[in-house]
Fold each of these.
Amino acid sequence: MNQIKKINFLGSFVFFLVISLFSFGQIAVGQWRDHLPYNYGEMIAVAGDDIYLLTNVGLLKYSISNGETEKLSKINGLNDYGIKSIGYNDFTGYTVLGYSNGNIDLIKDNEIINIGDIKRKSMNGDKNIYCMDFIDGKAYLGLGFGVVVVDLENLEISETWYVGFNGGNLRINAIDIYGDYVYLATEEGVLKGNVNDALVDFSRWEHLTTDYVDGPTEWMTDQTFDNIHFTGEKLLVNYNNEEVSNADTIMVFDGTNWTHFNDGFNDVLYLGGNENEFYLCSTYWMKIFDPELNEVRHVWELSFAEGGEAPRPNFAISDGSEGIWIADKNN
């Protein structure tokens, strides 16, 4: 059956969703079922009573109210294979799925709507939808070539931003929106743009790792950053050292200067959270910090079952009340 591991840490709960093969109902004669291992958690979306867990082979939906779990795939309604990212927009009530070929599915009230413009578009470049964030009724998707803005109310793509050199393609690894500003972690540094500006013009973007570096921080120019989060008037980004393992570096930007966060975090899997706290997922643990970047909670080497692998938190998200849901790469 399903199991929810709930641990109380100073007033908050941390949930690990454990999916058993026996938790799924029997299928009717003549219907198909996949037999893939859904135990490698990559990303989570909290959509009211439903928790969506993106794994390496597909998507699971868990209902908090009745404890039921459902596999979602092309077999039972999705429009494609290869989901790359997921997010929930509370303004419209859509759960947004981004695929590796640029396809987009929207889930709401057991209905699935497809927006296939990017998939169908003939173009050179990487169409993977790596990340997403939202403002009101718009989804901002980070792809291998730039940012695509989707109007979720009118179900259409409204803008495409090419933010590379001279308006060229640039892979967006992570995106975070705070107020009117969009922050991008890319293959060539960290960018900032005001959504009220004409961001289709690449010159409207600020290059934070070019314009605000000198001396000890000049190394940041044109480097690859794979995680980004704004909290407490500070922007945190992770430099992903692709040549040396366990050599990541978290940097903090206060609006003027970059500083080094902490030497102890060298294998960063995820930075996220909200304006009141941020979550740091690394190998075998997750830490929670307040807006002043003080550590307030620590999740350490929890195990789901005897003989099971130690957890490897890959993603964390608050459910808006007292719960924090963690996607685990090992279980």
Amino acid sequence: MALTDYIPKLTDGSLDLEGVDLSPLSDLTRDEIEELALAWKEIDPKRRRNIVTTLSEKARDSVQFDFNSIFLMSLRDSDEDVRFLSIYGLAEYEDRPGFAPLSDILLGDESPRVRAAAAEALARYAHLAAEGKLLSRNSQRLHEAFLEVLGNDLVDEQVRQKALEGVAYYNDADIRALIQNFYTTGSIKMRRSAVVAMGRNGDPIWLETIAGELSNVREEMRIQGAVALGELGEEDGVPYLIATLKDDDSSEVQLAIIQALGKIGGSLAKLALKKVHESGDEVLKEASEEALHQFEFDNNPLGPAV
């Protein structure tokens, strides 16, 4: 069915979306997106939200569908919820067309939660920059955008949190000093984001600081400490994780530690995971099994020799 004939099904609010096949919206051409954009503004905001949500769910359920062009189009929607949902529709999107609109949203959107979502999405581009996979001018622009947000105390805290977590991939002395400053002087929420940033920053200097969070009275900080050690990837962090795994009664903390051990790897981590698999409850046993599979895959992604 041609898009021209299909669009009335989207614009007709009397039609239940559950009865509308949305698969024709996959892999639209540029001309088709331009045609849809003209009709899009005539669709009721609530229905636009439902369309974006349904497309996101459909894309997650099957890799054969690609609705990214629609999510990119609706980043400029007049409705805050549509913009927010569109960003999360682009959950794993790292291609160049997403960079500019997400950067514009980070710096200029009127909604703090939409700006925070954009900052979270842009962290993927920062990771690419750290790996040398982002154009240098875009890398510089992103670096400056994150710092602009962090340097403005009037910006909503949730936006600054995500900006700190994103800029952490730029591992230089100024960024490390910034992370340390927010960890030392920031609110509880900013301190948590600073721990996230330490893990992403990847510098071994953070090991002791992150490990110290494993004994924090706040469960969320212990969880984040475990996650950050996994991100950091230093085998010297394994003994801290094992000790906490034995002593911490929180199942959420234990699960985070198991996942971290799987990410870090090494003989000591593997031994600890095997012990959990042999003696833990069913939830921990399943988690340790997944971590061991991840460990084996990381060490031999092509599988055993035949």
